[in-house]
């Protein structure tokens, strides 16, 4: 059971204060009845309407962001602009956090949610969720690089990486890298270990979730029903 005002605020459309005002103004109905007040408890799945229109009372929210370079993948920071600052206030109130991190200068797919269990599933090292990155390097990638990735290369500090895929594109300074783990700066460090430093990096997919090619850099949208279903949500 959830308080009615809290439940309305959890949709991201209203603040708690606005929700209380809507309830007091008689614009909210619960199972067809006018509630006594904002503190009324509501069973999950009960039909709640505002101005006669049903609202979704789910509390988990899933946002796809096409992260731009220059913002950090944290929820707050005293100095730097964060990925959360790219979302409207209503969404920021919902306790969203990024599922995994991209470097400040990396672009592309970032999932933001308040669904902790899902984040755990996607990030757990033993789940081996594939992450695909598009990269441009300073240098020309070749068969030896592809083979080194395939075998699992060793970074400058001795860290051993699991086998990864390096698909070299028509321009040999460009490639798709598929990783099944997420070590710190991993793509950059793997390519640096081959003497071909990354000059551009963008994440294209994470498990079943693919960056929407029509989503401009710096913009976000809610996940579709299909995308949520693919994540088991
Ligand atoms: N690998 C990196 O080096 N940076 C990222 O942001 C993601 C993967």
Bound molecules: uracil
The biggest beta sheet reads:
9 strands, mixed
Structural class: alpha+beta
Order of helices and strands: EHHEEEEEHEEHEHEEHEEEH
Number of helices: 7
Let me know the number of strands.
Answer: 14
- Indicate the percent of residues in helices: 10-25%
Distance between the termini: 21 Å
Q: Roughly what is the average pLDDT, rounded to an integer?
A: 93
Strand content: 15-25%
What's the Cα radius of gyration? Answer: 22 Å
Note poorly predicted spans. Answer: none
3D shape: elongated
Structural features, described:
With 233 residues, the protein is an alpha+beta fold. 21% of the residues lie in helices and 25% in strands. The strands form 3 sheets. Strands 6, 7, 8, 9, 10, 11, 12, 13 and 14 form a 9-stranded mixed beta sheet that branches. A hairpin with an 8-residue loop joins strand 7 (97-98) and strand 8. The two termini are 21 Å apart. The model has no long low-confidence stretch (mean pLDDT 93). Residues 102-103, 106, 185-188, 201 line the site of uracil.
Key traits:
elongated; three-stranded antiparallel beta sheet; nine-stranded mixed beta sheet; binds uracil; alpha+beta; 233 residues
Q: How are the SSEs placed, and which strands pair?
A:
Layout (H helix, E strand, L loop, with lengths): L1 E2 H6 L6 H9 L3 E3 L10 E2 L5 E3 L2 E2 L7 E6 L21 H4 L4 E2 L8 E7 L2 H8 L7 E7 L5 H9 L13 E4 L5 E6 L6 H8 L4 E9 L2 E2 L9 E3 L2 H6 L3
Parallel strand pairs: 8-12
Antiparallel strand pairs: 1-3, 2-4, 4-5, 6-8, 6-14, 7-8, 9-11, 9-12, 10-11, 12-13
The structure holds uracil (URA).
